Amino acid sequence: STEIRLASRPTGWPTPENFETATVQLPDLAEGEVRVSNEYLSVDPYMRGRMNDAKSYAAPYALGEVMTGAAVGEVVESRAKGIALGDKVLHHLGWRSVSQGPAAAFRVVQEISGVPLSAYMGILGMTAYTAYVGLLEIARLKEGDIVFISGAAGAVGSAAGQIARLKGAARVIGSAGTDKKVALLKDKYGFDAAFNYKDAPVLEQLRAAAPEGIDVYFDNVGGDHLEAALSVFNRDGRAALCGSISSYNATEAPAGPRNMGNLITQGLSLKGYTVGFHPGLFPDFVKDMSAWLDSGEVVFEETVIEGLENAVHGFLELMRGANTGKMVIKL
Ligand code: NDP
Fold first, then answer.
1. Which one of 219, 245, 251 would you pick to mutate in the ligand 1 pocket, going by the greatest count of ligand atoms within 8 A of its CB?
2. For the Enoyl reductase (ER) domain, which residue ranges apply (predicted)?
3. Which CATH architecture has domain 2-122+300-330?
């Protein structure tokens, strides 16, 4: 199997030198194990945090450790009951061409016609579920809410915008970093308004897009986006703090938000969360999302980069915003 490991820890933006590629000879399968030829690997922003030697919600990668994370593939050998040759499986063994281990590390998934297997890492998996939990459980979205979502054209954000609409939001506003993404938000994902945060200050553009204020903020970005949201919140506003990608590769402390006092005066609730601690809604999510995909009420995009040798490139491009929707590596 060919695998990609963390070679050194980055300061600021990672570079290809922080990774190393190795080929390993896999041992024969032990009883109860399966071997999987991977078809897609996931690259995710949280992996940047794991490259630091700092405790976060996910443990740091050890130096020399494979870049673990979500992957999907086909079972090519099985010595486990309940997992057969040819089964498609989801697992978290990360950036390698072939994965093997005890059956418990693999979840068999059903192939759905017209939906790529990679969807189990995106619209039917962790990123869309993160959107679902954030809106429904953390921000307690209610019918009639005006919702603002940053990072809106990414995997989590594009799911969040559509879920908010389908769960009764009165108006959904999104921000993203290119005009093409802004057009997609309005034309494909059904956002009522959208803006390019690189065009003008976020606050100015958010005020124009939300003249009646916002009730829910779904934060993927932090920094100036969170500061702007705090300024336009209506009374009893609620925010789900999902991520703050604007600071992941920063070497200096981010400025702001400087208006945290609005939490008090407006009675706001901002609640952070990591999806792994909120498994309870998963059955509801699968039911809702499968029906929405089936009816065409939810659509999704993926940005697919070919080749394990391009996994590092894909990961860096993800953080630069080259992706629309979920970024995946196709082997
Ligand atoms: P995305 O698909 O959204 O990809 C990342 C996007 O971030 C890029 O496409 C880019 O889009 C945007 N971006 C990069 N830098 C900046 C910046 N300085 N300001 C604004 N936007 C920026 O990734 P995911 O959907 O996987 O993740 C989205 C967020 O959700 C991340 O913050 C992630 O850490 C978080 N997350 C949290 C989880 C949790 O449990 N709390 C679980 C999963 C994800 P653009 O062109 O628009 O700039």
1. 245
2. 14-329
3. Alpha-Beta Complex (3.90)
